[in-house]
Amino acid sequence: MDQLEEFDGVIAPTQAESRPWWPEAPHPGEDAPDVVVILLDDTGFSHLGCFGSDLATPHIDALAAGGLRYSNFHVTPLCSPTRAALLTGRNHHTVGMRAVSNFDSGYPHMRGHISNHATTMAEVLRDEGYATFAVGKWHLCAMESASAAGPYDQWPLQRGFDRFYGFLEGETDQFSPDLVYDNHQVEPPRRPEEGYHLSEDLIDHAISFIHDSVSIRPDRPFFTYLAFGAMHAPHQAPPEYLARWRGRFDDGWDAARDRWFARQQELGLLPEGTELAPRNPGVEAWDSLPENQRLLAARLQEAFAAFLEHTDDQIGRLLAELDRLGRLENTIVVLLSDNGASQEGGPFGVMHEMKYFNMIVETPDEAVGRIDDIGGPHSHANYPWGWAQAGNTPFKWYKQNTHEGGVHVPMVMHWPNGIAAEQRGTKRNQFVFVSDIVATLYDVLGVQAPDVYRGVPQHPVSGRSFAAALTDPAAPTANTLQYFENGGSRALVHNGWKAVCKHDKGADFETEPWELYHLDVDASECNNLAESMPDKLAELIALWWSEAEVHGVLPLDDRGIELFGVRFRDRSPHPENRRYVYRPPMSPMPGQASASVGGRSFDLTATVTRSRGDEGVLYATGTENSGFSFFVQNDRLVFDYNAFDAHTVLESNVEVPEGTSTLTVKVRRLGSRVGAAELEIDDQPVGNVDLPFFMLMMSSVGPSVGYDHGSAVSTRYASPFHFTGTLHEVVIQASPERFADVQAAGHAAEMGRQ
Q1: Packing angle between helix 252-267 and helix 291-324, nearest 10 degrees?
Q2: For a pLDDT cut of 70, what percent of the chain falls above it?
Q3: Which of 415, 537, 637, 724 could form a disulfide with 516 if both were Cys (CB 3.0 to 4.6 A apart)?
Q4: Predicted pLDDT at 701
Q5: Minimal CA–CA distance to 156: which of 121, 188, 111?
């Protein structure tokens, strides 16, 4: 036969005449370090204790004390693009991720997943002989491909990771998460009332994966990518952590910014002469706020602080286990944030972010009635602008913006075997971009990304190695030219100078104003030199356009609403006629891969066979905070429309018959914000009700068929409340029209959630 596999032995008629040969398995070498990359979400430059705050991060602070702090580290303004650059070492537009992975704009720079022309660090290191594990948030595949129907080609296991445990979407409830284990959906191992929290579960699995590997193959190093859902909204923490922070922020965000800024100066994290940026537009002086607004804002910040402290404790658990295994000394630990602090809480903060995405402005006077829910399972909270800017001290603006508040974040590197004792606890001030991390790791590991991977030509790694600065704090900056872009906002950093343009949707890209800053002496962008140095500004703007051509940034695209229409295209989970047929048993579905009913009229019909007493959920979507559930209980058909704790419950006026029947709820949108629902059994009306508020966006948690996964949407049962009869199928016929306000809410939700 043709010998297709490599063989360097001898094959003769008999074994006695032949010589066997075994290919050598890839191995990076006996001294190859383990690699752990820890990614925090929506964490600003000043949020960590070692970067100036008085929040509790002792384990991260210990990493910094035993390693290096990077005070001039930059990322993209959004989650998915940073993750794509972090895992590939290329610029995010080049690899198809200019925005969050929920979108595919039809251009190469926005495909909703990492291009196959860009190997991930997991793919490269696995081929070098590393075990590879991903734990936590992925958000690097198209959300419409994140269901059990796939396709799976851009899930973690298909992009180089041996094991995965976490969630595929941009956010999830920390007490009742949507979870994927390797390539399949799973339920959380415990319930919130049993003490469950996602961050603890992630660390449990990270430790388990590491134990599985090093117990059997201690010679084999591992790469663990640990991407917490923290510190993204919802800000949720165990009650004992929430209790520790009561009253700690009553003096407000102005006082916190002053304290944190002073501490940053004390720690030498800022260039001499850096000013504290003025309050962003919409951020009022704390002392001028009404009492209820201060009360709500302080409690929302308490939840953030508790969430961060709890996350830090989980990081401590992992580090302690690596130490116990005797591997911490030769483990490269890199800890960073994906973008600056989030602005999606609005001016007041929100008890439930879906209210914000439904364009409901919940005033502090209304919200304080539920203030004790903040941080627990019965809230989906995010803090207000004032606390977000405090987290970005000393900078202005936020996540999504290309000013420093959106892109200048903390980064810590810890590697006892690779960082000399006299250098530990010191800082590095060289400009570093997120794609430089891969280039540096490849450099110190002696690894090179392939030019062709599995027959596919590869983009070159664009990151620059800062390995020289690991041992020499005065090493020259390796990355002297870096562009930024998000939603039309642009920036470019070159040799300590920065040109930046904050784009407003619809503004003329050619004529809108740019700003100019000398970051080496003005890190907080307080002194705009655009008028006094027009030639320098013009030079940097021209460089931006040149870099945009090189790295695939164009066309500039500030679409938001329109991109939601783009995803409803051929070969997607969303048929043109909007008719969805679900046949249980089925795994839970992510929202973007399931029936699109937010803001739409729809009919939902379940075909069942049951005996008297059979009951349970037929279809439910959302959580205890918002959504709807369609179920049988006490032999009656029930529809519970949960509009942010305002439950409209409709129960049939007759019993559901025994045997086979069709059970229907018809939901109609009657105006911008009102609707109605009608129940039918075997096509006969059996009850109707007005819906005083019609939700445009229901929840970030998708539906389940035949039960209610996660927290119970309805207060009339405890989840999962499986249907005990036979559920043959659920058919949803949604109206084809898509209202402009629904599109707006959808865009706001997806951008905000990421």
Answers
A1: 40
A2: 96
A3: 537
A4: 87
A5: 121
Query: Which residue's structure tokens are 């911490």?
Result: 328
Strand 34-40 versus strand 222-227 pairing type: parallel
- Give me the chain's average pLDDT, please: 94
Strand partners, 180: 166, 185
Q: Output the pLDDT for position 569.
A: 56
DSSP string, 612-679: TT--EEEEEEEETTEEEEEEEETTEEEEEEEETTEEEEEEEEEEPPSEEEEEEEEEEE-SSS-EEEEE
Report residue 270 as tokens.
Answer: 């800022």
- The answer to whether the CB of 85 falls within 8 A of the CB of 79 is no
Contact (Cβ atoms closer than 8 angstroms) between residue 339 and residue 77:
yes
pLDDT greater than 70 at residue 150:
yes
Query: What tokens does 560 get?
Result: 């938001």
Of the candidates 146, 154, 256, 220, which has an alpha carbon nearest to the alpha carbon of residue 572?
A: 146
Q: What is the pLDDT of residues 698-727, one digit of tens each?
A: 888 899 999 999 999 999 999 999 999 999
Tokens found for residue 714: 């309805």
Residues 6+ positions from 467 with CB-CB distance below 8 Å: 440, 443, 444
Place of tokens 């059990």: 148
158 and 146 Cβ atoms separated by less than 8 Å: no
Give the containing element (helix H, strand E) for 727: strand 726-734
- Average pLDDT, integer, range 396-400: 97
Token pair recorded at residue 272: 């001499």
Tens digits of residue pLDDT in 274-321: 999 999 999 999 999 999 999 999 999 999 999 999 999 999 999 999
What residues contact residue 477 under an 8 Å CB cut-off, 6+ apart?
430, 431
163-167 and 626-633 beta bridge pairing: unpaired
Distance of CA 499 to the CA centre of its chain: 28
Check: CB of residue 14 under 8 Å from CB of residue 311: no
3-state secondary structure of 134: strand
Instruction: Tell me the two tokens of residue 548.
Output: 């945009």
Give the DSSP per-residue string, 286-329.
GGGS-HHHHHHHHHHHHHHHHHHHHHHHHHHHHHHHHHHTT-GG
Separation in Å, CA 302 to CA 305, 467, 658:
5, 38, 52
d(CA 299, CA 338): 25
Q: What is the pLDDT of residues 249-283, one digit of tens each?
A: 999 999 999 999 999 999 999 999 999 999 999 99
* pTM (two decimals): 0.94
pLDDT of residue 564: 62
Q: Is the pLDDT of residue 96 over 90?
A: yes
Q: Hey, which bits of 393-520 come out as E strands? A: 411-414, 426-428, 432-433, 452-453, 456-457, 481-486, 489-494, 497-501, 515-518
HSE (side-chain half, CA atoms, 13 Å) at 226: 31
Distance of CA 704 to the CA centre of its chain: 22
The candidate with the shortest Cα–Cα distance to 172, out of 708, 695, 622, 742, is: 622
| DSSP secondary structure letter of residue 97 | B
pLDDT confidence of residue 752: 44
For residue 647, list its beta bridge partners: 642
pLDDT tens track for 726-739: 999 999 999 976 54
* CB of 445 closer than 8 Å to CB of 130: no
500 Cβ contact list (under 8 Å, min separation 6): 402, 403, 484, 489, 490, 491, 492, 514, 515, 517, 525
Tokens at 163, concatenated: 């094991």
Instruction: State the amino acid at position 210 in one-letter form.
Output: I
Q: In the block, which residue shows the tokens 């009306």? A: 685
Check residue 404 and give its pLDDT. Answer: 98
Read off the pLDDT of each residue in 164-171 and give the average, rounded to a whole number.
95
